[in-house]
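User: structure tokens for this one?
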Amino acid sequence: MDLREQLQAALGGAYTLGRELGGGGMSRVFLAEDVRLGRTVVVKVLSPELLAGISAERFEREIRVAASLQQANIVPLLTAGDANGLAYFTMPYVEGQSLRQRLSAGPPLTVAECLSILRDVTRALGYAHERGVVHRDIKPDNVLLSRGAAEVTDFGIAKAIQASRVVTSASVGGASESLTQLGTSVGTPAYMAPEQAAGDPNLDHRADIYSVGVLAYEMLEGEPPFTGTPQSVMSAHLTKAPRAMTRADVPPSLRRTVLKCLEKDPTHRFQSADELLADIESIATPSGALPSAARARRGRALAWAGAAAAVALLAWIATGPMRRARWVKREAIPQIKAYADLAKYDSAWLMARRAEEILPNDSTLGTLWPRFARRGLLRSVPEGAVVHRASFNDTTRWITLGTTPTDSVWLPLGVGRLRVEKAGFRTQHGLMGVGALSSPLRTYVLDSVTAPDSDMAHIPGGTFGVFLVGLDVNRTLKLGDYRMDKLEVTNRQYKAFVDAGGYTKPEYWPPELTRDGVGPTFEAAVAKFTDKTGRPGPSTWEAGAYPAGQADFPVGGVSWYEAAAYAKFAGKSLPTVYHWARAAAIQTARFIVPGSRFESTSPVRGGSPRSIGVYGVYDMAGNVREWCENLASGGGRFILGGGWSDPPYGFTDGYAQPPADRSAINGIRLVRYLHTDDQLARAKEPQPRAFTDYTREKPVPDVVFDGYRHIFDYDRGALNARIDSRDTTQEDWIVERVSFDAAYGGERMIAVLLLPKARAGPLQSVVYFPGSNVISMTNSTERREQLASFVVKSGRAVVLPILKSTYERRDSLTSDIPDQTIFWRDHVVMWTKDIKRAVDYVSSRRDMDSTRIAYFGTSWGANQAPINLVAEPRFKAAVLNVAGLTMERSRPEVDPFNYLPRVTQPVLMLNGKYDFFFPVETAQRPFFDNLGTAAERKKWTVYEGGHDVPRTELIAQSLRWLDTYLGPVR
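Assistant:
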């Protein structure tokens, strides 16, 4: 049986294979028909030899990341799988030809055509790089030309097979080759960056930028800069300069761009795809300079009639402001909208800043800012510091925000890098987070260059709680400024304590050592804390010494008692959970956890730039766990941040363990308090920890649950509904604000409806239960369309009930953290009745289809979904955006856990891998596993993100789910 027959047999009846489209050593490509959906697709099957030694789990993980890419210039992955040992994936069939075919067929591409292709390829790369995906195999074969646009295919495939010992090239200078014994460099030699050719395992997005340079060189010159055997080509990438470009009509600016992409040293290339794109656009549509064709015409005109040409030149220059204004209207504003819709907030912000410089008072531009930015005030102590910001993934493009104190400035949503500078003071580095959980006022406290503790970061005080899973965020204290070690305590530093006789001096050790019963005397207790050879020291050491070459690695294998003794020796303190959590800012988990040390076999030297936190402290996520001062309920001591062998959710967990535990991942980070008062003493007190191991929990039995069902019942009285306002001025929808009788207390309820224009109905509708940020919001017009607007654009209505305690119906409830009070129980009952009442209202309208109503819950709304889905059977399907169970439990009659097994509707659950509120294993998985929905009608997908989901994936997955279970909109 040949490969085609084997593949067809493995795919069964899902796809019918057609003709073979081509391929090389890496893969074979077939046209196919998707039988279920009736569409033409491409099926690419990878060489079994190429995948030898690669785990199916790793391959699937990388493919899943690649499949999350949804952008106009990227050919998306549709499905992937392993069919009887054949790894394959499917993509849409793109009519047209590859860039390879176009270059082979001729005629040569014009400069304008080259620029257009480069612009599209770079846009695709910019989108992928922002999401942490590097292509690694940019070449003409992977660029498809269709309908006047270029699309990039095979994203993520090279990384998915990186561990293979066999490297296959589909083309080297146009010829197919098979490469072996070339390390782990996966890609095509003619287009490889030098670091890729050298087998560097740590190559980054700048390797793609080099490949774009090769692509551009070939489009302009007719062949790549280096040709020959695979080995000679790879050697040339490492050692030789490209041949000089000779094509006469190529502008010098474009030659400079190509050669900058082809720099051997990645730091000398464009540092981001956005930077390269801006350069390409400036060449394609230069501002304040004549295009090349215009310059040629000008030369001829000056030769024929100098005066007339001068007049024409002056006229062209005079129209510069008008042309720039047209650029804002026709190009910048639509692009800003597109960036905002794709959650590319940095890109939208940068383009909006440029557009505002040209048209500072444009009303359309003014309305766009809240879609991707928030107003902020920047302060410093002392004043007069210059604040700079860069995107998290690009530390080369710093934007100056202003000098403190600033007026209100627009700051892009999300997390970026920060640098604060003032002469005579230490420069402060860190992160700047902007969003629902961030304050609009940021104050930076700068230490003089002569101040002590140059190895510590200055962290401003304030009123804050402990934002960690299992700890009560509502327990807040007003605490003063403090300093925290930028790095974890190292082996070298701890060795000074050991050499100073630290294990023989009781004055360093906490009184709990004997009080806790570690030993009857100090000597007996300390005698238990030895290294592998019985000498005093951490459990990871031997013969009183740390492992060779690890002087600057974090010390591990210490108990809480040893950590406290070392703190006393160093003249510092173990942090309280309050101070640790403030510095860690786990809301930034999605950014710093991927660059931190988790799920590994050993620690590493600290200080990786990708592990930096908000206040300039490194490695709070992973590497080693860090002991804290506080006792936890049950007698343990808190040890936070997770360690190198922990799963990533360890960063967000309020974890505790016995103080005598000396696991290899137990380490130390210290603080110095700059103020002492009663609040500090309270911060050191024992902290209650709520943790629920849902693997051991069982929902209440049916006989008990039957008594819960009726607490959400109410008499179905008249709605007495009215439309209070109707706004038809919005571009994509009509906004109706309606009110009707609530199901309790004689109250009136409000709902906001977003209705698609040009739809006669009856409309499918989606009832939206938002995240808990609405508890603190006072106006339901604030960001009401931000998340669910795509639902309206699909032709469905969105219904936002104004729930009790939210927006205009705020009351004394301040948090979505559940508890055992009647107060909480009664609020859950009211929220559920509000949702049911909203469905009553939808069902009463003739323009709504009462048989096609779905539930959409985000965060808090997703957590509460099991109750609402069981209490309201009229919901036909549900989409849950970042769902999970809380560690804190409510009374059983309103505990979502008890409702999960009773859910029967189809449920789509979308989550982030680094969720700081609902960790994957302890909160998300038990939620999904306990859902009563039939296995084939529930789906859970985890993305590379935090307490969010990539917007393009949210849109694509949600609409697909609604189309499946409500039916497509007609």
